[in-house]
Amino acid sequence: MALKSDASRYFFGYLWWILEPLLYVCVFYVVFNVILDSRKADFLVFLMCGKLPFVWFSKSVSQASNSIVSNAGLIGRIDIPKTLFPMAIIQEGLYKQSVVFLLLFAVLIGYEYMPSLQWLWLIPIMAVNYLIIVACALIGSVLVCFMRDFSMFISLGMIFLMFTSGIFWDVRGLNNAEMTELVLTYNPIAFIIDAYRQVLMYQQIPDAFMLIKIALLFGSVIMLMVYAMRRFSRFLALKALTA
Amino acid sequence: MNNLDDKVMLELQDVSHNYHAKKASFDHGIHHVLDSVSLKLYRGETLGVVGKNGCGKTTILRLMAGILDPTEGTIRRRSNASAALLSIGLGFKPNLSGRSNATLSAMLQGATQKQAESLLEEIKAFSDLGDSFEEPVKTYSSGMRSRLGFTTALMTDVAILLIDEVLAVGDAQFRGKAEAALRDRIAGDQTVVFVSHSAPQVASVCDRAIWLNDGKIADEGSAKSVLSSYRTYVKSNAG
After folding, report:
1. In this predicted structure, what is the pLDDT of residue B80?
2. Contact B113 A77 (CB under 8 A)
């Protein structure tokens, strides 16, 4: 039912679903390819493979983070599971992202990166990407509930992640191989973005073991958060209403 | 849960409620809203709660509805007694039509989608919203919002109806209609807690009342006697 409301809220803005991420890509393209002249082959495709999944992550998490506090009116009226608010935002983002992915595939095919069986790896990659989003969104929404100031840190953190996750630069292109290893091991976003590229552009199979590790980690964070948010639902309500 | 007296729907025992306010202007930044309040709510009765602004009326309703937990004390609710809190305006999705909002509210109060949809025409008729029912709620006046909110809560079936100042807005005609509908519900098996700072309204719908002052129950008893002492207090403070 929250989905229904979201769908109608954005009735006029269907076009924005695609337009907004594309504008992000445009900005980056102008800066890095036209002005800084990065001279990377097919930079547009490279950029889109990184930026589009990242926008999915960053938009979902930052919107979901504010979702509990911005629904304080509703929270003051009924005893409602608090996970509903971030999840509604994430679900909305998932719908939008499915359209964005279709567009990405169209561009890839346009640049003659033809679909292959390797592309089936996208299913687990997207699933893990989704798990990361849910875990971060739940944590963010609770943090903002306790202190509104956290929403500032979250937007700052998004910028930090944007620069450190290899969206406009290639993690594998670093001069220092150890650094590449370090980033891919400790920054799951960078790993996921690299995995998208490996599959879509280079027909490579991603590190399945790492993928499972990330899935398990974020999956357990989600379970923990859902349990905690159920258990302390009324405490969260108090915080949302008074803090 | 089951050791409640058969007639008691809800019981508050020594309930205190406080929270950390941002500014440390109160007791080391702790804001005391309710201070060991005990009361019982009986099946089928209409309990009025009066008191000045900020005395804890809305908080007591939120505690009763299970939205908040008390800091101290216990609240016992009859098992499977659903409670719905009805207050003005808040909780609507402004970009959605009155119809979708009514469906959402009804479903959030535990109705299935089918049940909610079957209530819609009734809600539309009673609230007198006419064609505005299909318009987004952001175009509504506060009176129209309260009509929608009141009607939705009235139509959905809850064991304990908690009403927060809703009748304060809306024009005289709708208010009359709403009061009449409320009396109909009250005449049945409906348990109602009715919060208002308007003494005449409490007098006209409630059989029993409590008067909250500074987080404590200042008086409790029949609506008439509580209201007369509340009036005396208001007058003596104003003068």
Report:
1. 67
2. no
CB atoms within 10 A of CB B163: 25
In angstroms, the separation between the Cα of residue A78 and the nearest Cα of chain B is 6
Per-residue confidence at B24, pLDDT binned at 50, 70, 90? very low
Q: Do B67 and A74 touch (CB under 8 A)?
A: no
Contact present, A238 and B68 (Cβ < 8 Å): yes
**CA-based nearest residue to A154, from A240, A71, A86:** A86
pLDDT tens digits for range B220-232: 888 888 888 888 8
**CA-to-CA dists, residue A224 to A66, A215, B183, B190, angstroms:** 20, 14, 47, 40
What single-letter amino acid sits at B227?
L
The pLDDT confidence band at residue B15, using thresholds 50, 70 and 90, is: confident
Å between A2 CA and nearest CA of chain B: 8
**What is the mean predicted confidence (pLDDT) over A29-52?**
83
Q: Considering only CB atoms, which chain B residues are within 8 Å of A75?
A: 67
Query: B137, B97 in Cβ contact below 8 A?
Result: yes
Quote the CA–CA distance of A52 and A34 in Å, as a whole number: 20
- Three-state secondary structure readout of chain B: CCCCCCCEEEEEEEEEEEEECCCCCCECCEEEEEEEEEEEEECCCEEEEECCCCCCHHHHHHHHCCCCCCCEEEEEECCCCCEEEEECCCCCCCCCEHHHHHHHHHHHCCCCHHHHHHHHHHHHHHHCCHHHHHCEHHHCCHHHHHHHHHHHHHHCCCCEEEEECHHHCCCHHHHHHHHHHHHHHHHCCCEEEEECCCHHHHHHHCCEEEEEECCEEEEEEEHHHHHHHHHHHHHHHHC
User: What residue of A is the nearest CA neighbor of B17?
Assistant: A238
* Reported pTM: 0.82
What secondary structure letter does DSSP report for A33? I
Give B110's pLDDT tier (boundaries 50, 70, 90).
low
Name residue B212's beta-bridge partners: B217
Strands B83-87, B208-213: pairing kind: unpaired
Is B69–A75 a contact, with Cβ atoms under 8 angstroms apart? no
Complex ipTM above 0.90?
no
Q: Tell me the chain A residues in contact with residue B31 when contact means C-beta distances shorter than 8 Å.
A: 242
Contact call for residues B167 and B188 (beta carbons, < 8 A): no
End-to-end CA distance of chain A: 28
